Amino acid sequence: MRDAATTFLQSYRASPHTTTEKSPFAAMHGGREMRTKLPMETYCDDIVDREQVVNTNAKMVSRDTCAKEHRLKVGDQVVVMQKRKNKLTTVFNPTPLTVTNIKGSIITANKNEWSITRDASKFRKLFGVQPQSSKKDGKEIYEAENDTNEQSDQEEHEEDEEYNEGDIEQNNEGANDGNVEPPIARPERERQPPAWLRDYKT
Questions:
Q1: Are residues 92 and 32 in the same domain?
Q2: Which of 15, 82, 132, 201 could bridge to 93 as Cys pair (CB 3.0-4.6 Å)?
Q3: Which residue windows does the record flag with biased composition (Polar residues) (predicted)?
């Protein structure tokens, strides 16, 4: 009698219900079917559905966050995001690095003996800097940056000279006409440092 009851309970627990289409054992154990003496057929419908849901959610997240593939290449000059140690810590480390290896979204960059591997979202490309080749060293890159800075300073100096010449011409025309209007005096607002810098001496 005991053996018959055990066999009956085993069959009942392994039989799927007509309404839920799941066996009592599977309902109590997270969908895992009970092992019986009968050959079991593996159903992949749940696995396929779960995979489709995961892929759909990933696509929706990429669409909502405007995600796109990175455009970094081997040899590009980049800066890497760093941990915030205090209030004055910048978001990115100012030390430029050179990309040496790319594997999907995993980027490896180094400078001298320092090598770091992070996701592509942790890097930012430095524009206006020539990609570093194997023959270039830090001295040549430093000279290129100095040339760029000198050129920008020269352009600003030329613009200031043109602006001053225009002011002189306008003043001369006004003096000849005899109608010189005094400049409009506007009060300057008092500039105060932000509150989060009050504990620092500036």
A1: no
A2: 82
A3: 7-22
- Cα 13 to Cα 16: distance, rounded to the nearest angstrom: 8
CA 33-37-43 angle, to 5 degrees, is 35
Residue 146 amino acid letter: N
Q: Is residue 3 part of a domain?
A: yes
In a domain, 160, yes or no: no
What are the pLDDT tens digits along the chain (202 aa)? 777 888 888 778 888 888 887 888 888 887 777 777 766 666 667 778 888 899 999 889 888 888 888 889 999 999 999 998 898 999 999 999 999 999 988 999 999 889 999 999 999 999 876 655 544 444 444 454 555 555 555 666 565 555 555 555 555 555 455 555 666 677 788 888 788 877 766 5
